[in-house]
Specification:
By secondary structure, this protein is of the alpha/beta class. It is about 20% helix and about 30% strand. The strands form 5 sheets. The protein has a 7-stranded parallel sheet, sandwiched between helices. A 4-stranded antiparallel sheet has the order 1-2-3-4. It is globular and about 60 Å long.
Length: about 375
């Protein structure tokens, strides 16, 4: 999405997230934000995320300050809405301060550009046997599975014959989830692994393909909003966030009342996932670590008490019509495998509890299992 980046921040900004006041401190052409003993580098634009009651619409919200130029609804919750508000000023300090004091504004924060990490790992030598722990199942229902990633090459031989409910680009606001950059290859691999796994068990999920590459809070929120509007049963995301903005947390927490599965890659930093991946703060979210065939973690995998599942993390995928293969590894591969296995179970009418999943994915020594290599 086009945006007007700040180029010369001059004064600190303050906002509240998770009931804590956070400060954005100017530093060169960006800001520094302290969150849970971490210093994060962020960028701002001329946009704000504003929460109001349901009685407001874009027209009424645009009257809250004369500098407001555009208003777009990003998420409608049960009792409130989150809006993307574009203003004339950059950075939007004056409008932010004004709305923080406005009686009709429930919350407001800058639209932050976070440093997001893709959960891919360096190729690991030696093929690991892919455990087939489930017998073929008789599908009794169609499962809708949303993949939020960097784009999907639907001409790829491994992605032929997909059952697609919707494709959408949350960054560009287009009904097209195809790759837009040469580096947009990860989503294709995730979709290929999902499809390869489900088809082994005779299950063809209905896919919601969402391209979402940027890490603006507004784009993240829109991507998950689209998945929710499409009533996805499972959402697969391979991105690692260092900070969980309130708008996204509120959307996902409310959506969990419908009992979807949120499957997130734990990350490949050989670090404690509780501190390195903010998605661990979501109750009910499934954080997936990368495991060997015996259940031990690969040395690169994030670990710790926030890990819910250890899953296979080394797969051979067909990359072209000549059946040449390449390795797909890392916690993103493990998360895709878990999402596929969930789809297989759900297609047979079984909605497994998270604490049951480890029994049919891979044996683990406990939720806080760590690799002996750590």
């Amino acid at each position: 999405m086009a945006s007007q980046l700040n180029t010369a921040p001059v004064s600190p900004l303050f906002f509240v997230n998770a009931k804590q006041q956070l400060q954005l401190e100017p530093a060169a052409s960006h800001y520094l934000m302290q969150v849970q003993s971490k210093t994060l580098k962020v960028q701002l634009s001329n946009r704000l995320l504003v929460k109001t009651g349901l009685q407001h619409n874009a027209a009424s919200l645009s009257q809250f300050h004369p500098a407001i130029e555009k208003v777009q609804q990003l998420a409608k919750l049960q009792q409130a809405s989150w809006w993307l508000v574009t203003v004339k000023d950059n950075p939007p300090s004056a409008v932010l301060s004004h709305l923080q004091q406005h009686a009709q504004v429930l919350a407001v924060q800058p639209d932050l550009l976070l440093q997001r990490q893709n959960a891919r790992a360096e190729e690991t030598s030696g093929q690991i046997k892919d455990p087939q722990l489930l017998p073929p199942l008789k599908a009794t229902k169609t499962v809708r599975l949303a993949i939020i990633d960097d784009g999907f090459d639907l001409q790829h031989p491994a992605l032929q014959g997909l059952n697609i409910a919707l494709q959408y680009d949350a960054d560009l606001r287009l009904a097209d989830a195809s790759p837009k950059l040469a580096l947009d290859q990860h989503g294709t691999k995730v979709a290929a692994l999902l499809l390869q796994t489900t088809r082994q068990h005779g299950v063809e999920p209905e896919l919601v393909l969402i391209r979402q590459v940027s890490s603006w809070t507004s784009d993240l929120l829109l991507g998950f909003t689209v998945a929710r509007m499409m009533q996805a049963d499972i959402v697969n995301s391979s991105w690692i966030l260092p900070f969980l903005p309130d708008p996204l947390a509120e959307l996902l927490n409310e959506w969990q009342q419908q009992q979807p599965y949120f499957v997130f890659a734990a990350g490949n930093n050989a670090a404690d996932a509780c501190s390195s991946n903010a998605f661990s703060q979501l109750p009910g979210a499934l954080l997936v670590a990368a495991a060997k065939h015996n259940g031990e973690l690969w040395p690169y995998s994030n670990y710790g008490p926030c890990i819910d599942i250890n899953a296979p993390a080394y797969f051979q995928l067909t990359t072209n019509a000549n059946n040449k293969t390449s390795a797909f590894t890392g916690t993103s591969a493990a998360a895709a495998y878990v999402s596929a296995m969930l789809a297989i179970k759900m297609a047979s009418g079984v909605h497994s509890r998270p604490d049951q999943l480890q029994l049919w994915v891979l044996p683990v020594s406990g939720k806080d299992a760590e690799s002996s290599d750590q």
